Amino acid sequence: MPNNEKEISSFMKCLFAGSIEREMVFPHPQMDKEEAESLKLILESLRQFAADNIDAGEIDRNQEIPAEVIAGLAELGLLGMSIPETYGGYGFSATAYNRVFEEIAGIDASIATTFGGHQSIGLKALLLFGTEEQKKRFLPKLASGEWLAGFALTEPGAGSDAACIKTTAVKDEGSGDYILNGNKIWITNGGIAHYFTVFAKTMVGDAEKISAFAVTRDMEGFASGRKEEKLGIRGSSTTELTFDNVRIPAENLIGPLGKGFKVAMEVLNSGRLGLAAGCIGGIKRLTEMSVDYAKNRKQFNTPIAKFEMIEEKISDMIIDTYVLESMVYLTTALIDRGDIDYSVESAICKVYASEAVWRTASEAMQIAGGIGYSPEYPYERALRDARINLIFEGTNEVLRSFIALAGMQEHGEYLKEVGKALQSPLSQLGVLTDFAFSRIRRTVATERLEDVDAGLRQEVGKFEEYARELNIAVEKVLTKHKKDIINQGFILERLANMAIDLYAMAAVISRLDTALKEYGKEKVSRELQIGKAFCEIAWRRIRRNRRQVEHNSDPLHKSIAENAYESEGYDFDLIS
Amino acid sequence: MSVDILVVAEQRDGVLNRATLEAVVAGQGLSKDLGLDLSVLVLGKNIGDLANDLCVGVKEVLIAEHEKVGDYTADGYCAAIKQIVAKEAPKYILFSHTYMVRDYSSKLAAALNRQLVSDCVGYKMDGESPVFVRQIFQGKIDADFTFSGDGANLVSFQVGAFNADNLDSGTSGEVRDAGVAFDEIEVRTKVLDIFEGVKQEVDLSKAERIVSVGRGIKKPENMDLMNELAAVLDAELAASRPVCDDGWLPLDRQVGSSGQTVTPSLYLAVGISGAIQHIVGMKNSGTIVAINKDPHAPIFDIADYGVVGDLFEVVPALIAAVKEIR
Amino acid sequence: MKIIVCMKQVPVQDSLLKITDDNTWVHEDELNWEINESDNYAMEAALRLKEEHGGEVVLLSMGPDRVKESIKQGLAKGVERALHINNEDFTTRDPFINAKLLAAAIKQESPDLVLTGLQADDTGFGQTGPILAEYLGLPHTSIVMEIEKSNGGIKVKRELEGGWFQSVELPLPALLSIQSGSNQLRYATIKGIMMAKKKEIKSLTLADLGLAEDEVDDSNSSLNFNRIFIPEKTKKAEIFEGDPKEIAAKLADKLKNEAKVF
C-alpha cells in the first residue's frame, strides 16, 4: 500500500496521539431543518406501511420476505435513498439514510439486512468508485428497486482474512474481457439480487492483486445456490455464488485494476454505520417491550418493574441507546462533512452497537422470564437476529485489533523504527482503508476539552485524564513490543476498549453540552442522568483496562489456552 | 296549538326505526322535568298507520306526508322541518342519533341559526335547566353542554342511551297535518336504490348468547378456538368491525354501529378493546363478559365480569371449565 | 375537477389525556398529532378522483402552527396546494363557528366538490360537513364509501345501518362526508415528500376571510361547552386475573350460578 502524503483529519487517531480535536465533535451535529422535516414524514410513512404490511414473525417463520413488501418499500423510494438524484435516487445525507435504516431494523431485522446488503454495501462501490457510464448503466434500476444489489467478497477460505480470496478474473487479451472463475459464500441477497460487486484476483504485472467487478445475474456462467439456513435474519436471502467462466466486459471493472481491496474496505467502512444504526433500532424495540412487560407483570404482589435488578437492566438499555445514538449520528455527520477519516470511529460504533444489542436481547428475554423462551413471543427471534452482528461486516475481534493498531499507527511512525514495520501486518489485517497510512492533520495540539457546560465538568475532567492515559499506554506498549505489537492481542483488546469508551464519552459529552446550551438544565435533566451514569461506568472501565495493560495475567491465559490445544480440550475431569 | 318538545321520528318504507322510541322516552323525561308538552313529527309517504301508532305516550303526532320526503334526503327533511319550526316554534327538537340523523340534523340547526348537541348519552337537571352530556375523545371523556338564547334547541341521543321499554304509554294523542308547503321545497339529491350489502344468514338480534371476537385473536386461523368456545356455550359467533372488514367473518356477524345491535343475555367479548362504535351495538346485553390483556381497555367499563389475561390461555381453560360445569 | 378536502389535526389516537384545571379542555403541550382518521380517507377519495378525472385537490385546514406538519403529509401524498387558517389567536370549539370560517375560505375557491371526514376523533361532533353544506348552499350526503362521476353530477354509495347501502346521485357542486375504511390509504413516498417542499401553503387570516373577531367568538354561540370531565364508572366489573385455569373455573361458576346465563 502506498503511503498517502495527504493529511486527513481523524478524531480518534488524534486522540491516540494525544490531542483532542474539539472541532470535529463539538457541537453535536444537528440535521438541516428541511431535511429533518422530510425525514419525519418519511419515517411516518414507513411506520404506517410497516404497521399495515409487515409481519416480522411470519417473515421469520417462512424464512422469506414477501415480494410485495420489497416492492412496497421500493415504491416508497427507500431503495434509492443514498443514490444521487441524477441517477434516480434521493441523495440523502448519511445521517438521514442511517436514521431510516435504524427504523427499518426496529421493524424487522431480515428486511434491514436485505436493505443494507443492497444499499449500505451492495451498490456502494458504484457510488464511491464507479465511472459516470457505470453509474448511468446500473444506478437508476437499483434506485427504483427493479434490481437489487449484493456485495460478494467472502469465500470459504477467506473470511476475516479477505486478502486471500481465490476467485480469479483472467484477462482475455484478445477481447479485453475478463473471465471470472470461483465461488463466494454467505452472500446477502445472493438469491434475489441482479447486480453484484464481485472481488477477484487479477494479475497486475507479475503481482496478484484484487480487483472489483460489476457482475449481473444474466451473465452466462453465473449461478446462485440454494438459500442457506441461518439461526437468525432468516428472511434474508443468503446464498453461495458460483462463477463458471463468466465473461465480464472491461467496462465492468470498478475502480483501478488491482485496487479492489481498497474498494472493498472503503465500502465496508461506511456500511458499518448502517449496521450500528440498525442495532439502535433493535435496542429501542426491545426496550419498549421490556418496559411494557415489567410494568404489567406482577409477582409477589408487585410489578416487577419495581425490583432493582430489573431497574438495572432497563437502565442499561436506556444508557446503551443514548450512547449509541450520540456516537453513530456523530459519525454519520463526519461522513457527511466529506474529507474526514472515520474508519476508526465507524469500527468503534459497530463493535459497541453489536455487543449492546446482543446484551439487550438477552436481558429482555431475562425480564420476560419463561415466556421469553417461547416462539410465541418475539424475544427469542430478537436474540437470534442480534447474534450475527458480532460476526459479519468484520468480526469484533478483528475490528478491535484494527481500532488499536490504526489508532496507534501514527505514533508508531513517530517512533520511526516501528511505523514502517506496522504497514505490512496492518495491510494483511484486511480491514484497512486508504486513510490508514495518511498523516494525521492536527490543528492545535491540545490535551484539554475546552468550553463545555459547567454541569459536565466532572465528566470532562475524566475524559481528559483518560485520553492522556490512552496516549501514555500507546507510548509504553510500542516502546516495549515494537513491531511485535501486532501479536499482542490481549493488549490490543484493552487499548481498543479504552478507545471505544473514550469515543463514547466524547459523543455523549458533546450531545449533552449542545443540549444544555440550547435548552437549559431543567429540560435536559433526564438526559444528564443518563450521561453521568454512562461516564461513570466508562471511566471506571477505561481505568481497569489501562491497569491491565501492564498488570495482568496474560501469560497464564496464553499458557492455559495452548495447553488446551495440546490436550484437545479440558484435561482435568474432577471425577472421571 | 303549541309544540314544546318535538321528537322527529325515523322510518323507512313505513316501518319505524325502533330508535325513535328511545328518543320519545328521552322526550318524556324532559317533558316531565321541564313541564313541557311532547309531540312527535313523522315525515314520509304512506305513513298514516305509522302516525297513529306513534300517538302512544305523546300529546300529538304531526304528519308531513309527500313524495318529496318519500325517500329520505337532507334537502327534503331540512326544508320541511324548517317550515314546521317556523310555524310551531318548538323549544326542543329531539332525535335519535342514527345515520340518517347524522346526515341532516346539524344542517337543519345551521338553517335555523341554532345549534345541535349530538350523540348525547343522557341529560341531567341543573335546577330548572337541562344539561346535556356527550362523550368526546372516543368515549374517554364526558362533556356538559347547555343552551342559551331564544329558539329551538336541537339534541340527538345516542342509540341505546335510553331504553325503548321504558316508554310510558299512559296517554295518547292525536294526529294532525303539519301543513308543509312542499311545492316550495327543492330536493337536489336523488336516491337511486337501497340494497343489502350481504345476504343475512344469521339474525344475531335473536341470539340468546353471543361470543364476539375482536382484533385480539390476531389471525383468522385462530377462529377455530372461538368456534369451540361458542359451541360449548351454545352461542352464536359475532365480531367487531375490523374482523369483518378483514374478511375473517362474514359481514352479517358484525356487531356495532354499522352492523347489528344485539341484546343477548350473555355477551362474551374476546380480544375486543371496546371502541365506541362496537359498544353501541351491544351495551344493553344482559351479562357482559370481557377477556382482554389490556387492563385499560374501555370494554371493561361496561362489563359485568372482566378477565385481564392472554385470551390464548384463558379461552382454552374456559372451554374446559364450562364443559365440566355444564 | 377542483376538490377541496377539509382536514383536521387531532391528538394521536390513544394519547394519554390530562384535563386542564378549569375543566375546559385537555393539556395539548405534550401531545402528538395526526390527521383525523376519516379526513385521511376523504383525502384519499379526492386524490383518486383527481387521478381519474384530472383537476386539482386543495387541502383546507384550520389550526395553530403545528397543523402545518399534517398539511405537509397531505402535500406529500399528492395534494396540489393547501390553505391554512391559522387560529393561534382565536381557538374556537363551536362547530358552527368553525364551519363559518371554513366556508369563507371555500367560497373564495369555488370548488366542484368539497369533501370532509365523517367526524373528528377528538370532539366527535360529526357536524362540520352538513353545516358547511348549509352555509355553502350545496347539496350533500354523508357516510360515503364510493364516489363516481355520473351524467347528473356524481353518484355515491353510502352506508346505512345494519349492513345496508344506498346509492344517491347529486349535482355538482356538492359536499360529501366520507366514511373511514372506504379505501386503501396510500403512503407518502419519498418522491412525494420531496415534491411537497415546493408546494404552496397559503396562510389565511380573519381579514383574508372577511370576518370580524366577534363573528368567531365562542361566547356568542347558543350552545355552551361547559365543562369536560372523566366519567365516573357507574358499572364496576368484577375483574379476574392470574392463573388461567383458576380464572376459568371461577368465571364459569359465576356465569352458571350468579348470572345464570346457562
CATH superfamily placement of one domain in chain A: Butyryl-CoA Dehydrogenase, subunit A, domain 3
Biggest interface and which pair forms it?
Answer: B-C, 92 and 77 residues
- Radius of gyration of chain A, in angstroms, nearest whole number: 24 Å
Instruction: Give the oligomer, counting copies of the same chain as homo and different chains as hetero.
Output: heterotrimer
Instruction: Report the major sheet of chain B.
Output: 9 strands, mixed
Proportion in helices of chain A: 55-70%
Which CATH top level class of the largest domain in chain B fits?
A: Alpha Beta
* Total of helices of chain B: 9
Query: What fraction strand of chain B?
Result: 25-35%
CATH topology of the largest domain in chain B: the name is: Rossmann fold
CATH architecture of the largest domain in chain B: 3-Layer(aba) Sandwich
- Compute the average pLDDT of chain A: 92
Instruction: Give the tally of structural domains of chain B.
Output: 2
Low-confidence regions of chain A: 1-5, 429-438
Biggest sheet strand order of chain B reads 9-8-7-10-6-1-4-5-11
Q: How are the strands of the biggest sheet of chain A laid out side by side?
A: 2-5-6-9
Strand tally of chain A, please? 12
Model description:
The complex is a heterotrimer of chains A (576), B (326) and C (262). Chain A contains 19 helices and 12 strands. By secondary structure, chain A is α+β, with helices and mostly antiparallel strands. The model of chain A is unreliable at 1-5 and 429-438 (pLDDT under 50). In chain B, helix 3 crosses helix 4 and helix 5 (223-233) packs parallel to helix 9. The termini of chain B are far apart. By secondary structure, chain C is of the alpha/beta class. Chain C has a single domain, classed as Rossmann fold. In chain C, strands 9-8-7-10-6-1-4-5-11 form a 9-stranded mixed β-sheet, sandwiched between helices. In chain C, strands 2-3 form a two-stranded antiparallel sheet. The longest helix of chain C has 17 residues, at 37-53. Chains in contact: A-C, B-C. At the B-C interface, helix 3, helix 4, strand 7, strand 8 and strand 9 of B face helix 3, helix 4, strand 7, strand 9 and strand 12 of C.
Structural topology:
The complex is a heterotrimer of chains A (about 575), B (about 325) and C (about 260).
Chain A lengths: L6 E2 L2 H6 L5 H4 L7 H21 L2 H7 L4 H10 L17 H14 L1 H14 L1 H6 L2 H13 L4 E4 L15 E4 L6 E11 L6 E10 L2 E10 L5 E3 L13 E11 L4 E2 L5 H37 L1 E2 L2 E2 L4 H30 L5 H26 L10 H9 L8 H19 L4 H11 L9 E2 L16 H25 L7 H31 L5 H26 L3 H14 L9
Parallel strand pairs in A: 1-12, 2-5
Antiparallel strand pairs in A: 3-4, 4-8, 5-6, 6-9, 7-8, 10-11
Helix pairs in contact in A: 3-5, 3-6, 6-7, 6-10, 6-11, 7-10, 10-11, 10-12, 11-12, 11-17, 11-18, 12-13, 12-14, 12-17, 14-15, 14-17, 16-17, 16-18, 17-18
Chain B lengths: L4 E4 L2 E2 L2 E2 L2 H16 L3 E7 L3 H6 L6 E6 L8 H15 L3 E5 L2 H13 L4 E11 L2 E8 L4 E7 L5 E5 L16 E4 L12 E7 L12 E5 L9 H11 L2 E4 L1 H5 L20 E5 L5 H4 L7 E6 L6 H4 L2 E4 L2 H15 L1
Parallel strand pairs in B: 1-4, 1-6, 4-5, 5-11, 6-10, 7-10, 13-14, 13-15, 15-16, 16-17
Antiparallel strand pairs in B: 2-3, 7-8, 8-9
Helix pairs in contact in B: 3-4, 5-9
Chain C lengths: L1 E6 L1 E3 L21 E3 L1 H17 L2 E8 L3 H11 L3 E6 L8 H13 L5 E5 L10 H9 L3 E11 L2 E7 L4 E7 L3 E5 L11 H7 L4 E4 L1 H4 L13 E7 L8 E4 L2 H15 L4
Parallel strand pairs in C: 1-4, 1-6, 4-5, 5-11, 6-10, 7-10
Antiparallel strand pairs in C: 2-3, 7-8, 8-9
Helix pairs in contact in C: 2-5, 3-4
